[in-house]
Amino acid sequence: MANFIVTIDGPSGSGKSTICKMLAKNDGFIHIDTGKIYRSIAYLLGETFSQDKLNKLKLDFKLQDSQILLVANGKILNDLLSSEYIAKKASLIAQKEFVRSFVNDFARKIAYNGKFVIDGRDAGSLIFTNAQLKFFLTAKTEERAKRRSIELSINYKESLDSIIQRDKQDSERKVSPLVVPKGAIKIDSSNLAIEEVYSLIKSYL
Ligand code: C5P
């Protein structure tokens, strides 16, 4: 089978993961969440993070219900990665070139054959520059903070502070900062229901 790759990049809380899950459930895509790969590294290596430890890291994956699950020592990590604490750590380690290159290689290894939707910050601008379709999904900061506070059951202020901090780190870092990929279709989801974003994306497929 030839590869068919759709990338969805954008800041935290823009709805990327939800849309990818819908495409995986309804439209035959396999979903790779590159943010989860960064989160796994942050979770597994914690404070003792170093290039040497990353080189020795045994991170694996398996496919289940069209989702890529991340596995270490036989344990599925996906459900352990959603806290803002891990998100902030992921955003910090994501500034290192050697971490980014580990994640990029890992994602490319998974998406070598099939129909994939991949979300992240640089899926279309760097990891999969040859993707058939690229989207950039965004929304106003306050709206994204509201969504995350509901999703994670945390207070709005905590969510807003975390989003502002991560947006800054993600867009100002030297190595592959968050940008709108060349040729990407830009969608602002601030005033759209998730079903409307899904329909809009489907209209391009
Ligand atoms: O998307 P998610 O919020 O799970 O990503 C966690 C962190 O990982 C982001 O804040 C970002 O710093 C980093 N990330 C990245 N590049 C990607 C995906 C995520 O730098 N492609």
Automatic annotation (TrEMBL):
One of its GO terms (cellular component) is cytoplasm. Its main location: cytoplasm. ATP binds at G10, P11, S12, G13, S14, G15, K16, S17, T18. InterPro entries: Cytidylate_kin, Cytidylate_kinase_dom, P-loop_NTPase. GO terms for molecular function: ATP binding; CMP kinase activity; dCMP kinase activity. It comes from the Bacteria. Pfam families: Cytidylate_kin (PF02224). It is an enzyme of class 2 (transferase). Signal peptide: none annotated. It catalyses: CMP + ATP = CDP + ADP; dCMP + ATP = dCDP + ADP. Residues 6-201 form the Cytidylate kinase domain. CDD domains: CMPK. The keyword Chloroplast does not apply. Its EC number is 2.7.4.25. It is found in: Cytoplasm. Keywords: ATP-binding, Cytoplasm, Kinase, Nucleotide-binding, Transferase. GO terms for biological process: pyrimidine nucleotide metabolic process. NCBIfam families: cmk. Belongs to the cytidylate kinase family. Type 1 subfamily. This is Cytidylate kinase.
